[in-house]
Amino acid sequence: MNLKEYTLIVAGGKGTRIKSKLPKQFLELNGLPILMHTINAFLRYNREMTIILVLPEDDFALWNELCVKHNFTTKLILTKGGESRFQSVKNGLDKIEGEGVVAIHDGVRPLVSEDIIGASFHLAAVHESAVAAVRLKESIRMTDQDNTKAMDRSRFRLIQTPQTFKVSLIKQAYQQKEDASLTDDASVAERAGHIISLFEGSYENIKITTQEDLIVAKALLDARS
Questions:
Q1: What pLDDT shows up at residue 145?
Q2: Which structural domain range is residue 28 located in?
Q3: pLDDT over 70, % of the chain
Q4: Structural domain includes residue 135
Q5: Which residues touch 111 (CB under 8 Å, ≥6 apart)?
Q6: Taking residues 20-47, what's their average pLDDT?
Q7: What is the mean pLDDT of residues 198-216?
Q8: Average pLDDT of 177-181?
Q9: What does the angle CA 58 – CA 33 – CA 182 come to, to the nearest 5 degrees?
Q10: How many other CB atoms are found less than 10 A from the CB of residue 54?
Q11: Positive or negative, the Cα torsion across 168, 114, 16, 69?
Q12: Is the pLDDT of residue 65 over 80?
């Protein structure tokens, strides 16, 4: 059975850690706002993709101005975010009617590849969830007040997006009460009793959070061109 594919992009950052007055998703990267790079990545995978963009309502006017400036005419469903990421994702999921598979992705991960996007949809269609993750490169230690303890890094993964789910599963999971410990969609689904399936992400699929990330992202984009 071919399930309809949706992408839900959440972009509510304020640019605090990147030391910018402009929200980080709107900063330009090689002449195009980061958020547009992210949307284009999913369109390269599937031009007919239904995209739901969740933004703070105060950013709607700026987004529309940027679309005019960059002649960005992609049709998408724009909806307002909530006070938290949890509420914003829930608002976006409310725009989906019927069954399908939805990839939930950070607006400031513009370097996600078509291969990772495709894998997330195909695996979620089979396993009901597919979460991108990468292995740790460095040694880690667990801290407990004054003590530290070396940990086996092979047992841990760094979690990325897209985090892709069967629509009915993730919509049901987001009916639960919000909790500060639910930091991503996988943790929401897991708390609701679902098993989370991981697949291999990419070290290039970085989340732009600091100035250093902008430098790395530009270098990676230049290397691709």
A1: 83
A2: 5-130+159-224
A3: 96
A4: no
A5: 37, 41, 204, 205, 206, 217, 220, 221
A6: 94
A7: 96
A8: 94
A9: 60
A10: 26
A11: negative
A12: yes
In a domain, 205, yes or no: yes
Say which CATH number the domain at 101 has.
Answer: 3.90.550.10
Number of domains forming the structure of the chain: 1
Please give the pLDDT value at position 2. Answer: 81
C-alpha 168/C-alpha 84 separation (Å) is 22
Mean per-residue pLDDT of the chain: 95
pLDDT at 15: 57
Q: What is the b/e burial string over 152-177, where b = at least 16 CB atoms within 10 angstroms of the residue's CB?
A: eeeeebebbbbbbbbbebbbbbbeee
The vertex-170 CA angle with 11 and 81, nearest 5°, equals: 25
- C-beta of residue 119 within 8 angstroms of C-beta of residue 199: yes
pLDDT of residue 19: 65
